[in-house]
Amino acid sequence: MNNAAQGQYSEPTAEEQWRQFRELTCQKDYVDSLRGRNLDVYLLGERIDEPVDHPIVRPSINAMAASYQLAEDEPDLATAWSSITERRINRFLHIPESPQDLVQKNKMQRRMGQLTGTCFQRCAGLDTLSVLFSITFDIDKKHGTAYHERYLAFLKKAQARNLIVGAGMTDPKGDRSKRPSDQSDPDLFMHVTRRTEKGLYVKGAKAHMTGGLNSHWICVMPTMNMRESDKDYAVIGMIPATAPGLTYIYGRQSCDTRALEVGDIDKGNAQYGGQETLVIFDDVFIPWAHVLMDGEYEFAQELVSRFTAYHRASYVCKTGLGDVMIGAASSVAEMNGAETASHVRDKLVEMTHLNETIYSSGIASSYEAKQHESGAFINDPILANICKHNVTRFPYEISRLAQDLAGGLMVTLPSQADFEHETIGPKLDKYLQGKSSVSTEDRTRMLRLIENMTLGRNAVGYLTESMHGAGSPQAQRIQLLRETDFGKKQSLARRLAGIIATDHDTQ
Length: 507
Hints:
The longest helix is centred in the C-terminal third of the chain and has 26 residues, at about 340-365. The chain is built from 19 helices and 14 strands. The chain has a 6-stranded mixed β-sheet with strand order 2-1-10-11-7-6, with no helix packed on it. Strands 5-8-9-12 form a 4-stranded mixed β-sheet. The chain has a two-stranded antiparallel ribbon with strand order 3-4. A hairpin with a 3-residue loop joins strand 6 and strand 7 (about 200-210). The chain is of the alpha+beta class. The chain has helices spanning about 5, 15-20, 25-35, 60-75, 75-80, 100-115, 125-145, 145-160, 300-315, 315-335, 340-365, 380-390, 395-405, 415-420, 425-430, 440-455, 460-470, 475-485, 485-495, and strands at about 40-45, 45, 80, 85-90, 165-170, 190-195, 200-210, 215-220, 235-240, 245-250, 275-285, 290-295, 370, 375-380. Helix content is about 45%, strand content about 15%. The protein has 2 domains: about 5-295, Butyryl-CoA Dehydrogenase, subunit A, domain 2; about 310-485, Butyryl-CoA Dehydrogenase, subunit A, domain 3, CATH 1.20.140.10. Helix 10 packs antiparallel against helix 11.
């Protein structure tokens, strides 16, 4: 690189990047850590000077902040002893050292879903940290690199400071029929643009980044299997959210502008919401100390496979949202005076059955975890994919049943402003009541919550994300086909059918 080009870019060391971060001890510390960062953020066609105070953004910050509060309120659940830093840390930064660690992680995720009723945005980052532990170990074993040592140095600092690491995996992908290196525009997949003595530069974008704007660090990594021609696309690196060259474009969510309205009833869940951003990386610098893969393309597929084993089991978080949905549906039934009807009870039982089926497969994948040579435990991949495949279906049926029990009033309710109007407000209070013992406002609030989770802002976290997060349904089916030993199952059947054993049966 020529001197003129060098002068255009700052190449901070890893130590210099870490100086901006202090230890966070509570949710207030976390919220304060997001202020004054001067990020390049765009929402509804405008640059946002301070995202922390923006009414559309703030609910997503509140949801992530709840993970800090849970660590204080329920430390047995939301903290863990780290052998890396030899101290108790937030479980969202913990590398699983036993199957029980993964079970506790799942229980924590369900609890977070119960408390927020939305996507709390930390699972992808946690699962990224977990998979990097074993992948960097394996790359070093084959190539004699120092990625694992670099990773541990980063992780120790992140655990000690109690920071949030976001996951940047999904590329825009462009033409799906072409490999990363075959795209007409090379930037449609994240790639290395150049290397210097101090580090490397990456360019591209990461889509659907959950909580990207609310993170302290962003880990970029490959999104699919790679070939030798894709070596420049096989890159993993840690980037501070404040790095020069980053642009954040906030994704729209259904009914998100209700957050701009006066009052909280029509919002359904005024306090908490999810967040997805498109993050553009325009020649962003990564010092070598934070580079954890650079050209080892043959490990990209294994990275994705292990990540999905962790992350698809993490979708037990949706059972926490399911608990809220079941609670809202049963509450509305009571408010309507219909709680004793047999069909109502049957629908609530069905909702519970579906919700617990999701949970059981996720928990089972954690109990069946196996230890990697690095020491980390990894979820059973088949059961993890079963968990996520259940999630692509069951929340939709739970939502349908909740809407059934809520009735049509859920989508035809007048606004809070109408209820508060001097003339028509008393009339609405009169005609839109259910049981006389239940206030019309309480009934309205419960109906708005169901609307919020099935049609509104938090339907993103409960429904669409359930479909496409961590891969679409077909991605799970492909993984199930790859992981299932059909030959072994055939041998079991042949033995019982009395068919003469084959060579396969003795293997």
